[in-house]
Design a protein that fits this description.
Blueprint (H helix, E strand, L loop, with lengths): L1 H11 L12 H8 L3 H13 L3 E4 L3 E4 L14 H7 L4 E12 L1 H8 L6 E11 L2 E11 L16 H7 L4 E12 L2 H6 L7 E11 L4 E9 L11 E3 L2 E3 L7
Antiparallel strand pairs: 1-2, 3-4, 4-5, 5-8, 6-7, 7-8, 9-10
Helix pairs in contact: 1-3, 2-3
């Protein structure tokens, strides 16, 4: 479709750069001298290609560029959920800047007064809550981090844009029970069994880029990696995609 190709070209030549909202359907219709229905159809096609993402109440954003064509990348939960037929989404519960102190200074091998950025997100599949992620990264590792909408953009894409190459991701699985506010957020009864995952991402120089603690409904824990849990044993296949 001609309109689809024209919008795709503007994404590829960065007239619509990664992270930006494209013009509204009305503006595009005026620009290309076509109906809004034709524009909507073109945008829907590019959403299917994962080049665009429509965010209710905010607009339609560019979510794919040449960083997606790199030889190596790691599949995040959103990508794996989508491959499994779910519509992934997320809700940012809180963000804050904090000092590393003892815990994160040891994890990231930095001074205790190093600034860290923390983000807690509720993950959903088909609008059903499935996990809560508590992610911490060095504050200065991503430019303008306070302005990034992490309901729209992938943390790993932000790493790629900022020249941080993830080489390895370590997952540690354990079981626990859910209580309090987290139980309500995941729509689970108090004391329900839940899977806890500690995720540590490493760069090519073996530096820690990210530390995330996840609580996830057992049925969805497999979507955090290419591995699966069978009879209580976690089998992990390589996350390296070539």
């Amino acid at each position: 479709m001609e309109i689809t190709n024209r919008i795709r070209e503007k994404i590829q030549d960065k007239s619509y750069p990664y992270g930006s909202a494209i013009p509204s359907e009305r503006e595009l219709a005026q620009q290309f001298h076509v109906s809004r229905n034709m524009v909507r159809s073109a945008v829907d096609s590019l959403i299917e290609e994962s080049m665009l993402k429509r965010v209710h109440g905010k607009g339609t954003y560019v979510t794919k560029t040449d960083i997606d064509d790199t030889a190596v990348h790691f599949k995040g939960m959103s990508e794996l959920l989508k491959e499994a037929g779910f519509k992934p989404s997320s809700k940012v519960l809180t963000t804050l800047t904090r000092k590393a102190k003892f815990k994160y200074s040891n994890l990231f091998h930095v001074e205790e007064d190093t600034e860290m950025f923390q983000i807690i997100r509720l993950r959903l599949g088909n609008d059903l809550p499935i996990s809560i992620e508590n992610t911490t990264i060095p504050y200065h590792s991503i430019k303008h981090i306070d302005d990034i909408d992490f309901q729209v953009y992938s943390l790993y894409d932000m790493f790629a844009i900022n020249g941080i190459s993830i080489q390895n991701i370590e997952h540690i699985f354990s079981s626990t029970r859910i209580h309090g506010a987290y139980a309500k957020l995941l729509n689970r009864e108090e004391g329900t069994p839940i899977i806890n995952i500690k995720i540590t991402s490493y760069t090519k120089t073996h530096q820690v880029a990210e530390y995330t603690e996840v609580i996830v409904a057992p049925a969805f824990s497999k979507y955090y990696t290419d591995g699966i849990i069978k009879n209580g044993v976690f089998n992990l296949t390589s996350q390296l995609i070539t």
